[in-house]
Amino acid sequence: MRSRARRQALGAVLAAVVLAGCSDGRTFTAEEFVEDVNAEGVKLELGERLISDQEDTEVYAVALEPVANLPGAEDRHAGGSISVSDDADGADEELASCRASADLLCYRAANVVVVLEGGGIEAQQLGVAIERIAED
Questions:
Q1: For the chain (length 136 residues), average pLDDT per consecutive 10?
Q2: Structural contact between residues 56 and 63, judged by C-beta atoms closer than 8 angstroms
């Protein structure tokens, strides 16, 4: 029951992020996106470039650092990937693909889609940060 409420709350943040992310013509590089998100107080770490079967999309591993050193935090995995498309249409396709999976958290800003395999408060912070940079 608790996980259902959590998913609904994250879904609301996602909806706001998707709407805000579609509104402007800005595009990001992976590095620019991570810098902008981190400037909003999130600790997102850009990892290695991953293999992608799409020519117009770069995919990178990412990890979210825990907000606090809480008991059991070392067992949590808040990581995933970001897909950086050449344009917003590519991001639309990536977002649709992510949404097809019930176990992933999906965020979008402009041409970037973030896919997380875990979440918690770090994922909520990321959603708020993405919404803020999408408004700029």
A1: 49 44 72 96 95 90 82 67 87 83 87 88 91 85
A2: no
